[in-house]
Write a structure and sequence with these properties.
alpha+beta, Heat Shock Protein 90, single chain, Beta-Lactamase, 23% strand
């Protein structure tokens, strides 16, 4: 006899045969259904997931690296009336400790009165697609470097012309040093100051270019991340104190060593912390933490500045994108290149105040 239980069993068996993952959650985000494809994609078993908050299990991040809290969860947006349905690419934590890119297409289930009671998520593994996209991105980066070289040439040409003119004037004046008065000496000193300033700016820009072009060349060794952070903080502390910024360093007592390029990772962290310091011209606090979490070492850098506007969060890692006067837009892109070259990820996480960047480095690589 065809009973409701029989029909439910048949439906569950059918859903288990589907190649795409199907997950159903209630209004509290607790998982009530998890098919076999979900287990294959996420490496979590039904027993580990059913009845749990999906956010606690998957620790989802968006494609920009931002931590997906309940506030930004697409499922919760459906329940709150913000979306009728949606689709997002997310980076999830899998049951075996690895991370994987998935595409989640989400739709609501409604009762006869039209009220949303559950959400259905169709989950697809897009890791291979993302890897292909990354290769395409690397290819496009080569083209970008051509534009980068043109930008560099432009930046070099103008200060060189200015220096050439000023040095010509200086040469003419020096040839007749006997006629130099107090006013002339001051003018000479002003010229020298201009030249030195332009040289310093040019040298810094070229140095950034050289560092950026070499981010993929790693010289790895076993490194104590805590030592790297102590060096960076020691380097920045004098300037931070002058600006009224307190730096707090919180390192877990026992951190396993990781195989990284010490100098490049130091530069990546340095770039992030400098951004934090520059975001607090009127003083504030900068907290640097290091934790051993699962298969990763996580470094977090939290400032108490104004934070990053929502409309800019998708762009902060783009090459040449900057909101600072005189900025080159290289720092965060450079840091991201270094972290990714180590097999890690860098992300901007939600924070009640300021900005919080997290670098996650695999312990074994």
């Amino acid at each position: 006899m065809d009973t409701a239980d029989t029909r439910t069993d048949i439906l569950n068996q059918a859903l288990d045969c589907v190649s795409k993952g199907i997950m159903i959650q209630d209004i509290n985000r607790r998982v009530v259904f998890f098919n076999h494809a979900c287990e294959e994609i996420t490496k979590w078993s039904r027993a580990e997931v059913i009845g749990k908050d999906c956010g606690d299990i998957f620790l989802c991040h968006t494609s920009t690296g931002m931590c997906l809290t309940e506030k930004f969860c697409p499922g919760m947006e459906i329940f709150h009336g913000g979306l009728s349905q949606g689709s997002r690419e997310l980076l999830i934590r899998r049951g075996d400790g690895t991370e994987s890119w998935v595409k989640m297409s989400i739709s609501p289930l409604k009762n006869p009165e039209g009220k949303e009671t559950h959400i259905v998520s169709i989950i697809e593994d897009i890791s291979d697609i993302k890897r292909f996209s990354d290769e395409v991105l690397r290819s496009k980066t080569l083209s970008t470097l051509g534009a980068f070289a043109a930008e560099l040439a432009h930046e070099v040409k103008n200060p060189l012309n200015a220096m050439n003119i000023q040095m010509t004037v200086l040469e003419r004046e020096i040839l007749d040093t006997r006629k130099l008065g107090g006013k002339s000496k001051k003018e000479l000193l002003d010229i020298v100051t201009i030249v030195q300033k332009e040289l310093s700016r040019l040298s810094g820009f070229v140095e950034e270019c050289l560092h950026f072009s070499k981010t993929g060349e790693l010289n790895k060794s076993n490194v104590d991340v805590g030592d790297v952070l102590r060096e960076v903080v020691s380097l920045l502390l004098p300037q931070a104190q002058l600006q009224g910024i307190q730096i707090a360093l919180d390192i877990m007592n026992v951190l396993p060593q990781v195989m990284i390029d010490r100098d490049k990772m130091k530069q990546a962290v340095l770039n992030i912390l400098i951004n934090g310091i520059e975001a607090m011209p009127d003083g504030g606090a900068l907290q640097v933490c290091a934790r051993h979490i699962g298969p990763e070492i996580c470094i977090s850098c939290q400032d108490t500045g104004p934070g990053i506007p929502e409309e800019m969060k998708d762009k902060i890692f783009q090459l040449f994108y900057t909101t600072k006067d005189g900025g080159t837009g290289i720092g965060l892109s450079f840091a991201q290149n270094i972290v990714q070259a180590h097999g890690g990820i860098i992300r901007l996480e939600e924070s009640l105040k300021g900005s919080k960047f997290v670098i996650a480095l695999p312990i074994s690589s």
